[in-house]
């Protein structure tokens, strides 16, 4: 049976502190609209995007009050009456990703850019997200979780995994190429290191601190550069790549500084894939962008198919999220850890207690 109230982490107003409440209402099955489903959460990852949403530091304002979260895994416990899509059934284990829903009928959706649909609903930003025990989501967009993949192993694939998988696909790289990953020790970055490895790329990981260094080298990075210790990032990257520079950079750092000098450390025809989301100007020198035939691409999560592919690769054991478990009540300290850059890999919240 479905309770009337639940635990949820609510941000009452943009920029305010989170409140973990135990009396937040649960939308009841009879109240679900066609196409909606109610998902009982098992666990959810915490993405740096959730911190941007909490702080309200992006040019598009989040809803208010807000329940964040968009890396959730749980069981479908109810589906709205008159739902036409029959692919998802009660009892299915599904994932809730950033792109909660899209129209599937506009130019962007038809082209596979579902995330760029003008009617897109965003979990934990424009609709309530996964930091509550029962989440209303959408049958068209929830992602079936492969049987062989545990829920806690699947959670962060739903945002961090699918995002970096998509970013590497847009990087114009080929087996043997050098890929530079600023932010490599974070949630997105440590998965980028692994997807890159699985694709036969050679990785230069950039981040800071002994823990992140150990993590990325264990996960298959060939070279490590500590951005706080390096006196000259460009020189260090050129040295790491045999003097020529990288073929591509996947910038997963949540800071503007992570983007600095990418035009200088890539070889001609190199691609900068912008993933990290500081609300700031890129600041690339136009002369060198043109003269070196540099490509600059924005890469924004992925579509339903990208999510399925990213999960399948994890289920095959090629990529494994490195995470620690926390409780919903610990969310505040997880945000603090993200803010301070202290979290290597990911934090995943157990939503059952
Ligand atoms: O679709 C998208 N493009 C998408 C999807 C999901 C998340 C974009 N994001 C964005 C988030 O909103 C955030 O801005 O990607 C960014 C990273 O998210 P995350 O991986 O969840 O954050 P994290 O775990 O805090 O990792 C960030 C890492 O960057 C390092 C930090 O040390 C941390 O390990 N870093 C920073 I901040 N500045 C750096 C620099 N100058 C740097 N590493 C190298 N050089
Ligand atoms: Zn995310």
From TrEMBL:
<protein>
    <recommendedName>
        <fullName>alcohol dehydrogenase</fullName>
        <ecNumber>1.1.1.1</ecNumber>
    </recommendedName>
</protein>
<dbReference type="GO" id="GO:0046872">
    <property type="term" value="F:metal ion binding"/>
</dbReference>
<keyword id="KW-0520">NAD</keyword>
<dbReference type="Pfam" id="PF00107">
    <property type="entry name" value="ADH_zinc_N"/>
</dbReference>
<comment type="similarity">
    <text>Belongs to the zinc-containing alcohol dehydrogenase family.</text>
</comment>
<dbReference type="InterPro" id="IPR011032">
    <property type="entry name" value="GroES-like_sf"/>
</dbReference>
<keyword id="KW-0479">Metal-binding</keyword>
<dbReference type="InterPro" id="IPR020843">
    <property type="entry name" value="ER"/>
</dbReference>
<feature type="domain" description="Enoyl reductase (ER)">
    <location>
        <begin position="15"/>
        <end position="349"/>
    </location>
</feature>
<dbReference type="InterPro" id="IPR013154">
    <property type="entry name" value="ADH-like_N"/>
</dbReference>
<dbReference type="Pfam" id="PF08240">
    <property type="entry name" value="ADH_N"/>
</dbReference>
<dbReference type="GO" id="GO:0005737">
    <property type="term" value="C:cytoplasm"/>
</dbReference>
<dbReference type="GO" id="GO:0004022">
    <property type="term" value="F:alcohol dehydrogenase (NAD+) activity"/>
</dbReference>
<dbReference type="InterPro" id="IPR013149">
    <property type="entry name" value="ADH-like_C"/>
</dbReference>
<keyword id="KW-0560">Oxidoreductase</keyword>
<keyword id="KW-0862">Zinc</keyword>
<dbReference type="InterPro" id="IPR036291">
    <property type="entry name" value="NAD(P)-bd_dom_sf"/>
</dbReference>
């Amino acid at each position: 049976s479905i309770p009337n109230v639940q635990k949820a982490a609510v941000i009452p107003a943009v920029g305010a502190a989170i409140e973990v409440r135990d009396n937040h209402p649960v939308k009841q099955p009879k109240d679900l609209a066609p196409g909606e489903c109610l998902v009982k959460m098992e666990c959810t990852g915490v993405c740096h995007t959730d911190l941007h949403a909490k702080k309200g530091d992006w040019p598009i304002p989040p809803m208010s009050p807000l329940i964040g979260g968009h890396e959730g895994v749980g069981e479908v416990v109810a589906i709205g009456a008159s739902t036409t899509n029959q692919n998802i059934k009660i009892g299915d284990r599904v994932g809730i990703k950033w792109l909660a829903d899209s129209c599937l009928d506009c130019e962007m959706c038809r082209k596979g850019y579902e995330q760029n649909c003008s009617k897109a609903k965003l979990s934990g930003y424009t609709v309530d997200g996964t930091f509550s025990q029962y989440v209303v989501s959408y049958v068209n967009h929830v992602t079936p979780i492969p049987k062989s993949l545990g829920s806690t192993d699947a959670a962060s694939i739903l945002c961090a995994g699918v995002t970096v998988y998509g970013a590497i696909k847009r990087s114009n790289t080929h087996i043997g190429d050098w890929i530079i990953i600023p932010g490599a020790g974070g949630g997105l970055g440590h998965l980028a290191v692994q997807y890159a490895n699985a694709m036969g790329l050679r990785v230069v990981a950039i981040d800071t601190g002994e823990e992140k260094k150990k993590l990325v080298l264990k996960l298959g990075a060939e070279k490590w550069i500590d951005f706080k210790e390096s006196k000259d990032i460009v020189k260090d990257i050129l040295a790491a790549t045999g003097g020529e520079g990288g073929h591509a950079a996947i910038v997963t750092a949540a800071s503007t500084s992570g983007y600095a000098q990418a035009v200088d450390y890539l070889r001609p025809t190199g691609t900068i894939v912008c993933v990290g989301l500081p609300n700031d100007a890129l600041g690339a020198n136009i002369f060198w962008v043109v003269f070196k035939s540099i490509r600059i691409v924005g890469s924004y999560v992925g579509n339903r198919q990208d999510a399925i592919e990213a999960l399948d690769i994890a289920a095959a054991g090629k990529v494994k999220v490195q995470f620690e478990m926390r409780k919903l009540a610990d969310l505040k300290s997880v945000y603090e850890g993200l803010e301070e850059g202290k979290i290597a890999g990911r934090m995943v919240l157990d939503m059952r207690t």
